[in-house]
Design brief:
It contains 16 helices and 14 strands. By secondary structure, it is of the alpha/beta class. The strands form five sheets. It has a five-stranded mixed β-sheet with strand order 6-5-7-14-8, with helices on both faces. Strands 12-9-13 form a three-stranded antiparallel β-sheet. Strands 1-2 form a two-stranded antiparallel sheet. Helix 1 crosses helix 2, helix 5 crosses helix 6 and helix 5 packs across helix 8.
């Protein structure tokens, strides 16, 4: 979804007026004439459909929607980092950064490639730095470009949240929540939460972006998604993200019905490491918590982890691989509940306990809107009710 071209200067004028309480002082602080600043506020009020100030002899007194919007506008301006940047330039550069080419950005925004080239070039001049390097038909962001893209993305996230809060105050549909969902969260926890939340807040849109931690962490940091659900990582590696454990998951060994290992259960309570090492394994990549838990489990059970011939994080693909072979995997039973209930797959406890923390990851210092906070509270309630 392309970013709208927010008028950054209008928001800067508005935030300065809230901060100073005077058109004269605000205009001086943002290098505008008083008529230009007054006009900027009037246009913003027209766009929002509400008054942002009460005008009086004592100055400009912010209204309730202004008090809701002002902290978001201040944060957005700080993330943009320059008074010379325009909304059109931000929109063009974000589209280019996310698509990786002018052609892709043009398709995403509906703007011409020439307009995008011009906007990005003007932005580079305004900031006094090179933002992109061309590589054939694609572009790469420079280090300065990457920092600017992240700042612009966070600025847009703040403005979206501020406008949603004003809309909620007006009694209108209150924005949209974008959830990054890792595999385990998609089995029961997130769907049940969405169903309950939609019943309570039908006017709030919800978008689910599926992916691995590696695929979702970047968009979360950039402000493209609001929160991420799934297995938590080592906190020391995520100093810019905040993690909240919500429940614990106990993965089990999963295999096809009729697997030779199931017959071994007739003679022993549970298989040990050497037996498990004799079969092929289908597991996610090395840097995932589940893979690391599997390696620790194998060693605790008395065997070195064997070579993993097939690395895969897609539950649908893993299911088909298990059904057609003697391969084993380590998964939460909730992720394959239908197949286990139908008897086409079977699960058994691991020889050594495997426990992973599942929870909510957000940006450090993130301030959720009221609907976002309600969604997070409902995530906790649903998990504690046993739907995880």
């Amino acid at each position: 979804m392309p970013e709208p071209a927010y008028n950054i200067r209008h928001y800067a004028a508005f935030a300065a007026t809230v901060r100073h309480g005077s058109v004269t002082r605000a205009a001086r602080s943002v290098n505008l004439t008083q008529p230009a600043l007054t006009q900027a506020i009037a246009r913003l009020e027209a766009e929002l459909g509400c008054a942002l100030f009460e005008r009086g002899a004592s100055g400009m007194t912010p209204t309730e929607p202004a008090r809701l919007l002002a902290p978001r506008a201040e944060a957005a301006i700080a993330h943009v980092g320059s008074p010379r940047v325009t909304g059109t330039q931000v929109r063009a550069f974000l589209a280019l950064a996310r698509s990786g080419s002018y052609a892709g950005a043009a398709e995403a925004t509906g703007l011409s490639a020439a307009s995008l080239h011009r906007a990005v070039a003007d932005l580079a001049v305004a900031l006094g730095t090179r933002l992109v390097d061309k590589r054939g038909r694609s572009i790469l962001l420079t280090p300065q470009g990457e920092r600017r893209a992240r700042g612009f993305g966070l600025a847009m996230a703040e403005l979206r949240s501020g406008l949603a809060e004003v809309a909620a105050w007006q009694g209108k549909a209150a924005g949209r929540i974008v959830v990054g969902a890792m595999p385990l969260s998609r089995a029961r926890w997130l769907p049940e939460t969405i169903l309950r939340f939609h019943g309570l807040h039908p006017g709030v849109g919800i978008a689910v972006v599926e992916g691995s931690h590696a695929e979702l962490a970047g968009p979360l940091r950039d402000g493209e998604i609001d929160l991420m659900l799934g297995a938590l990582r080592e906190a020391a590696l995520l100093d810019d993200l905040a993690q909240e454990p919500v429940f614990e998951d106990r993965p089990q060994l999963v295999m096809r019905s009729g697997h030779p290992l199931l017959q071994a259960l007739l003679l022993a309570e549970r298989p040990m490491g050497p037996q498990l090492a004799a079969f092929p394994w289908v597991l996610p990549a090395r840097d995932t918590p589940l893979r690391q838990y599997w390696e620790a489990m194998m060693r605790s059970a008395g065997a070195e982890p064997p070579e993993v011939g097939i690395e895969c994080g897609s539950v649908l693909t893993v299911r088909q691989l298990l059904l057609g072979s003697d391969a084993l995997t380590l998964l939460s039973p909730a992720q394959l509940a239908v197949e286990l209930q139908a008897g086409v797959l079977a699960a058994m406890p691991t020889p050594a306990p495997v426990l992973r923390r599942i929870g909510i990851t957000t940006r450090a210092g993130w301030r959720p809107t009221a609907p976002q906070a309600a969604f997070i509270a409902l995530l906790r309630d649903v998990a504690h009710a046993g739907f995880a």
